[in-house]
Amino acid sequence: MLDLVIKNSKLIGKNGEYNIGVDEGKIKEITKENLKADNVIDIKSNYLLSGFIDPHVHFRDPGLTAKENFKTGSLAAAHGGFATVIDMPNTLPKTNTYKALKEKMDIASKKSCVNFYLQAGHNDLDEMCRMMELNPISFKVFMDLETDESLEEIFSNLGQLKDNTSYNGLVATHCEKRSIVSEKTEELKDSNDPIDYSYARPYTSEDESVKQTIELASKNNLRLHICHLSSKNALNIARKNNISYEFTPHHLLLDNSAFNTYGTMVKTNPPLRPEDKRVKISDIDENSIIGTDHAPHTLDEKQKGVFTSSPGIPSLETVVSLLLTEVNKGNLDLNLIERIFSTNAAKVFDLKTKGEIAVGKDADFTVLDLNREGKFDITTFQTKAEYSPFDGWEYKGAPVMTIVAGKVVFDNV
Ligand SMILES: NC(=O)N[C@@H](CC(=O)O)C(=O)O
Ligand SMILES: [Zn+2]
Ligand SMILES: [Zn+2]
Fold first, then answer.
1. 255 given a catalytic annotation
2. Whose CA is nearest to atom 9 of ligand 1?
3. Rounded CA gap, 223 and 234, in Å?
4. Is the pTM of this model over 0.90?
5. Among the options 196, 293, 362, 364, which is catalytic?
6. 312 labelled binding-site residue
7. Do residues 135 and 32 both lie within one domain?
8. Residue 387: which pLDDT band, with cuts at 50, 70 and 90?
9. Is residue 9 part of a domain?
10. What is the DSSP pairing of strand 289-290 with strand 244-247?
11. Total tally of structural domains belonging to the chain
């Protein structure tokens, strides 16, 4: 007897309704026939998609848990329709030692209600070899924190790591060129106008950093993935070089004039771009990946000055409804949704058992109700964050159930 059957499911790109048989956390059957199981979930003709994956979250655990932790962050992920998250290494301590990586794995194993993978920070070659015993899903480089010299050494070490261990060579990068950011920030440091933050870290710094990271990755035979791509020019460079990348919802839906409405609440790195320089919903194609860069801070940290407020926007609980609203407006093809939220990230991050509803794959699912209307209310969110530029926005379309390895972690069908 099957553990579970999910019945009356619409599948993207297929006609009619399907019943999905699940056993021991794996998909066993996909059929229009009736199935018997110990548990039956009727999703009432809503859409069943392969469990969404967010490759870019900051759950702040350990060390920064006033902002978020793995329990609140993973509940926010489940509530937002995500079955899997990939967490970033800029916690305290940095996740760039065997000890720190092991500690975070133990914390997440205890607290996370969704699947999690961890990106590692770079370190000297010996320490990175030790970390490989714990199999981080990739290494992360914050280009905005490095000099040209330190970047040469980091990428060379990663290249040697790939030659000498099982490391697959995947490196995710935050692309802003430190020298341009320092120079422009110096010029604007006395400004009290939040929009100047977008000129202190101009789109040219992202364009130059993307070019530089492509050269460094190619020279060291590494596979590059670009985080929170926000500049239109940089997108064209990435596409020309066949480099995978992520879009955040804030860069896709807001331009830097949002600073005039939301002030430092929309301060984030890279910053929101001028309207004519930014990526847009219409730039999403079959290779795009949505990575929210869910980066919560406390209200107090967000309400300091233009250059002293903390950069980062929490987006796990708004991104799916924001993009489904674009589908309902006719600005985004429904057939891209499973690819940009699940399939493409599974491919880039080598999650071979995820990203598709097929026999043998993990029983991770996201259920979407394309007609569910509502208005975002931050006071109902699971994240610790108490701010979002999207608070109060109306939406049409929402995640209504999240299933992880055959277990329901969020149900609002
Ligand atoms: N994106 C941000 O503005 N902030 C991120 C760091 C990062 O992703 O660069 C954070 O961890 O707060
Ligand atoms: Zn970043
Ligand atoms: Zn980030």
1. no
2. 269
3. 17
4. yes
5. 293
6. yes
7. no
8. very high
9. yes
10. parallel
11. 2
